[in-house]
Automatic annotation (TrEMBL), chains A, B:
Name the record gives this protein: Asparagine--tRNA ligase
GO molecular function terms noted in the UniProt entry: asparagine-tRNA ligase activity; ATP binding; nucleic acid binding
Gene Ontology cellular-component annotations: cytoplasm
InterPro entries with a match to the protein in the record: Aa-tRNA-synt_II, aa-tRNA-synth_II, aa-tRNA-synth_II/BPL/LPL, Asn-tRNA-ligase, Asp/Asn-tRNA-synth_IIb, NA-bd_OB-fold, NA-bd_OB_tRNA
Encoding gene per record: asnS
Organism: Chryseobacterium piscicola
GO terms classed as biological process: asparaginyl-tRNA aminoacylation
PROSITE patterns: AA_TRNA_LIGASE_II (PS50862)
Length: 482, 482
């Protein structure tokens, strides 16, 4: 790339000091007809452009306004003012394109503060704000760290199918995919919908998980991971749910449950460390924002730690590993449970844990990330390995402060007969998953994996609270704008 | 990761020589009741395990067969035989799971050669073959190189939506996404389908491109790229088309057409160099396979270069940059055109170029990758920048030997009035793309980008010829198995 970004100019200013350079960007602010704060998206920091307005064409100066796009040629000098090391003394300014200020003032680009709700309605413009610039740069860093971690550890990236004929996993409600003209759906002789005439020759859906296909890949390539979109057609209008979200699912041949927990812990710590090391400016901004937010809350609801402090603490300690059975014992005798403070009181072993219980364990009892394992088989999926107690399965959930479950995974059931029995018990169609069962027929091996929702992790790292604010164009009930 | 992969053992054998180690894998071959070729997917190379069968439980030895899964403990020694540096003298062998050899012999896992068609029908098992192991390891390397290139160059990864309400781009036929019960589709008072009652409250489709949303992100973050699945509901049963494929779309604020061509060339060369440097063993295997394939062809159809040679040549030379107008002149006076050898003869300026013309330019005329630019506006999309001649747009296509178009892109039309006129001419709904037009209203800037089909590039790098063989689970008309 030949063009210098503002990030490069600010970072390596010694290389360009007292030289003329060319920079490009958008005006974030224009003070006193003299000081332009220019931003090009490469960093949260603006480059100050000093305009000696008496020496410029007044028509050009009059067009410089918030959101204007400029090309600036000028000399890099040490800055007189506070807040920046260097600035540019403009010699030439070119207005790059239209900026209709009257219309602009009806958008979030007008120079005042806007609520997150309003910013969300203009998701195509929010990339230009400090907050969303920071969030999406951090999201990039999280994604890149994920690929880097797996690549370093000899995992292969596998693209599992998005459109799928399998709807057996039961991870959630699915969206249908069809090429039919909905006004004219073909019927067979019995009067049923004739899916044989649809594009794929069968009923198809959007995937809810790439795990099962991922397992088949791991049975040949050893260590694989997916990183792709998954879908839930659930009518959940909450701050934690999206109809379309990105999931990362590693799967490792020869790994058992303990290896799987080790992998999850190493993985999360690597990614968070990477973001701390590579997104300093953005995190400092988000950290300050987080602190401000806390001030507006009642004291009992305030976070105990700052954002960066929280991230540092999470990676400093070993995650606490606790069996489901131990967790139930802790919950049963907790003051919260005895005093009826849980919405769902814990009555006995076998109860499904709710977010309130997970957060009690993480935030109050252990005060660190917790890995729960060996859950009752009834509350977990069919493919999880049955333990020798015949009551629990080798499942694991990683619980994080403020978020609850951030990773869910398991060692998989590698024994064909046990798997078939589980599928029958749980009404999973064996014939539809013939290919999945094949992996247990031919050289079956112990293996394990987990799923991470990318947006949950980005929420955690950025300190944002609504999942719609950490994905560029959120898809939720009644909302597919853009 | 605590477990050693076979790749690590073979690469760093000096660290483990004369030590006992534990390895895991699947049996690729078992010769003379003595020599096991063990593979764990980490590399195309097998690790030889020497079994002194007289000292082993005959029941275990009898279970060792092609596709069996093993855990082996043994000493690493220098190999006596040819073909490997080290081997393992087995001390302990554990059979890890079932391997039903009778059923296995009805699958592609039986020890004999199978056609690519048969392998495709058992896509869940083909990861275990040498060929598909190599293809999917190379696919991983290509993907990782793409992320690395963009990260190094300060691009941010953006996830554009998969389910979209916009169907204005017209890049191809779209799949519908719905939550309706197709047996009971709600109607409004006029008797029309009431999409307001569908999950997203409107008619939605699977995306054909993330470009338009990507442009809005580039207008804030500067340099972005997408890497995600895209869809075409086209009934094309060819070796070059998939209904679901992965696309990479960078978009760069402040770039013009020339910058865009430079970026495409740097990008492709970086990725190919990375694969050459990081997939040596797999490429050597694919190179030999490619050579064998050529032998079975009539001499005139044989490739002039070997696979690795082709890759080295592509990155050695500067891509030839040729305007569409020059290309037409070359084609018009070519022997092929005059002698009627093209299925679609070139008659005049304005003709759309077919694959046969592109391949003539690349393979016969220039004998190197070619970048064509400045195409007639009538044959290109509405968002491409209109040149001053008022006849052509600032489009570019990168053409590769054997593949034809591998990248298509353009400088975008940044002028609001010109863009609106183009949209009206091409019947693109302005109201539906209100958000896209906003990027031209507020600080519009020159910008440019392109699209790369991941599978096309993997085809080129692996020397495979059917696009269904470079994606794990291909989606094509009447086919959505797995």
């Amino acid at each position: 790339m030949k063009k210098q970004t503002i990030k490069e100019v600010l970072q390596d200013y010694k290389k360009v000091l007292h030289h003329d350079i060319t920079v490009y960007g958008w005006v974030r602010a224009f003070r006193s007809n003299r000081f332009i704060a220019l931003n090009d998206g490469s960093t949260i920091n603006n480059l100050q452009i000093v305009v000696d307005f008496e020496n410029f064409d007044p028509e050009i100066v009059s067009k410089i306004s918030t959101a204007s796009s400029l090309k600036v040629v000028g000399e890099v000098v040490e800055s007189q003012g506070a807040g920046q090391t260097v600035e540019i003394i403009a010699k030439k300014i070119i207005i790059l394109g239209d900026n209709f200020t009257e219309e602009r003032d009806k958008t979030i680009l007008q120079p005042k503060k806007h609520s997150l709700e309003v910013l969300r309605e203009q998701a195509h413009l929010r990339f230009r704000t400090n907050l969303f610039g920071a969030v999406f740069r951090v999201r990039h860093a999280v994604s890149f760290a994920i690929h880097s971690f797996f690549n370093k550890n000899q995992f292969f990236y596998i693209n599992t199918p998005i459109v799928t004929g399998a709807d057996a996993e039961g991870a959630g409600e699915m969206f249908g995919v069809t090429n039919f003209d909905l006004n004219n759906i073909p019927r067979d002789e019995q009067g049923d919908i004739d899916f044989a005439q649809d594009f794929f020759g069968k009923k198809t859906n959007l995937t809810v998980s790439g795990q099962l296909e991922g397992e088949t890949a791991a049975m040949g390539l050893g260590r694989i991971y997916t990183f792709g979109p998954t879908f839930r057609a659930e009518n959940s209008n909450t701050t934690r749910h999206l109809a379309e979200f990105w999931m990362i699912e590693p799967e490792v041949a020869f790994n058992n449950l303990e290896d799987n927990i080790d992998l999850a812990e190493d993985f999360l710590k690597y990614v968070i460390r990477y973001v701390l090391d590579n997104c300093k400016d953005d995190l400092e901004f988000l950290d300050k924002r987080f602190e401000e937010e806390q001030k507006s809350k009642p004291e009992k609801d305030r976070a105990k730690e700052g954002l960066i402090e929280k991230l540092e603490n999470v990676i400093a300690k070993r995650f606490k590993r606790v069996s489901y059975t131990e967790a139930i014992e802790i919950l049963l005798i907790s003051k919260e449970n005895k005093k009826g403070k849980f919405v769902y009181p814990i009555e006995e072993w076998g109860a499904d844990l709710q977010s309130e219980h997970e957060r009690f364990l993480v935030e109050k009892h252990f005060e660190c990330p917790v890995v729960l394992f060996d859950y009752p088989k009834e509350i977990k999926a069919f493919y999880m390995k049955l333990n020798d107690d015949n009551k629990t399965v080798a499942a694991m959930d990683v619980l994080f402060p403020g978020i609850g479950e951030i990773i869910g995974g398991s060692e998989r059931e590698a024994r064909l007969d046990v798997l078939k029995t589980k599928m029958a018990e749980m009404h999973v169609d064996e014939h539809e998953l013939w290919w999945y069962l094949d992996t247990r027929r031919f050289g079956s091996v112990p293996h394990a994996g987990f799923g991470l929702g990318l947006e949950r992790l980005v929420l955690f790292v950025t300190g944002m609270t609504n999942i719609r604010d950490v994905i560029p164009f959120p898809r939720t009930p009644k909302n597919a704008e853009f």
